[in-house]
Amino acid sequence: MGYAAAGAPVVGAGTPSLDVALGSPVTEVWTTGRPVTTGGTADLTYGHDGDYAFLAGRVPPSPRYAPGVRRAYLRAFGTLADLGYPHVFRIWNFIGDINGSNAEGLEIYRDFCRGRAEAFETVPPPTGMVPAATGVGAHSPGIGFYLLARREPGHTAVENPRQLPAYRYPDRYGPRPPSFARASRLPGGPLLISGTASILGHRTRHARDPTAQLRTTLANLAVLAPDLSALRAVKVYVRHAADLDEVRSRCAAVFREPIACFVTDLCRSDLLVEIEGIAPGRA
Ligand code: 3EB
């Protein structure tokens, strides 16, 4: 996963990969100790090791995203089902012009949510649990996404008592609610925490105050992962470059480094910071 400039999902040097435009020289690498079988088509790429699958895809720039998102997600789920990895537990979505409007005047994030909800409605997750997710802006048009799936069932969706489940948000946030869980627990293993922001119930808190948003976000995360210093693979998304230094230094005091920080738009225009990470298993 490259975060510099956008590119097509491809297998290169035996590794399936996707580049998304977040203007950062960060590369994210998912590794396994077992041999990986790779493959793909023009618009998706994947690799799998017998237990886990990684898959990445893109939705091209469109006047309405819902049909393309629905199609791309259904192709992804169909491919994973054919390969034998039907249990999707974590998805990342990078959405160009996320707060802009589509050809019908609907916010592109809400348009994306519509297509995603339709995909999950058409092919419900086999155990009924939606995956954990991240949904943030990207610096070029179109949508890049990647996901992790398992061959076996057994992961569980985790919600946050401080937040309404996103799939139950009221329709003031768009025609279809966001289909994701706050976190995904692997059996006996780690907790993969979704992008988390300054939302209590369904409402954004501290709309114009990045420091207070960060405080609320950390409190939301701490309910899922009481020891924040143990979080790994922490990624921090900040809307305004002017807030980056302060957010980064406060995060460095809370999390163990390295922390990857990105300046990009977020899915509600009043959100200024969003954080994801992985809490180690209790095993
Ligand atoms: C929120 O809690 C903030 O649409 O996949 C965080 C993580 C957010 C994932 C998504 C959106 C998504 O609603 C935004």
List the helices and strands and how they pair.
Layout: E1 10-12, E2 15-17, E3 37-40, E4 44-48, E5 52-59, H1 66-83, E6 87-96, H2 108-122, E7 132-138, E8 143-150, E9 156-158, E10 183-185, E11 191-197, E12 199-200, E13 203-204, H3 210-224, E14 232-238, H4 244-254, E15 260-263, E16 273-279
Parallel strand pairs: 6-7, 14-15
Antiparallel strand pairs: 1-2, 3-4, 4-5, 5-8, 6-8, 9-10, 10-11, 11-16, 12-13, 14-16
Helix pairs in contact: 1-2
Bound molecules: 3-(2-carboxyethyl)benzoic acid.
The site of 3-(2-carboxyethyl)benzoic acid has 12 residues, from β7 and β11.
InterPro entries: FkbO_Hyg5-like_N, RutC-like_sf
Domain Chorismatase FkbO/Hyg5-like N-terminal: 28-149
Organism: Actinoplanes auranticolor
Key traits:
16 strands; globular; binds 3-(2-carboxyethyl)benzoic acid; 283 residues; 60s Ribosomal Protein L30, Chain: A
Give your account of this protein's structure.
The protein has 283 residues and is an alpha+beta fold. The chain has one domain (10-279): 60s Ribosomal Protein L30, Chain: A (2-Layer Sandwich), CATH 3.30.1330. 21% of the residues lie in helices and 29% in strands. It has four helices and 16 strands. The chain has helices at 66-83, 108-122, 210-224, 244-254, and strands spanning 10-12, 15-17, 37-40, 44-48, 52-59, 87-96, 132-138, 143-150, 156-158, 183-185, 191-197, 199-200, 203-204, 232-238, 260-263, 273-279. The strands form four sheets. A six-stranded mixed sheet has the order 3-4-5-8-6-7, covered by helices on one side. Strands 9-10-11-16-14-15 form a six-stranded mixed sheet, covered by helices on one side. The protein has a two-stranded antiparallel ribbon with strand order 1-2. Helix 1 runs parallel beside helix 2. The two termini are 28 Å apart. 47% of the residues are buried. The model has no long low-confidence stretch (mean pLDDT 96). 3-(2-carboxyethyl)benzoic acid binds at residues 93, 133-135, 166, 178, 180, 194-195, 197, 199, 267.
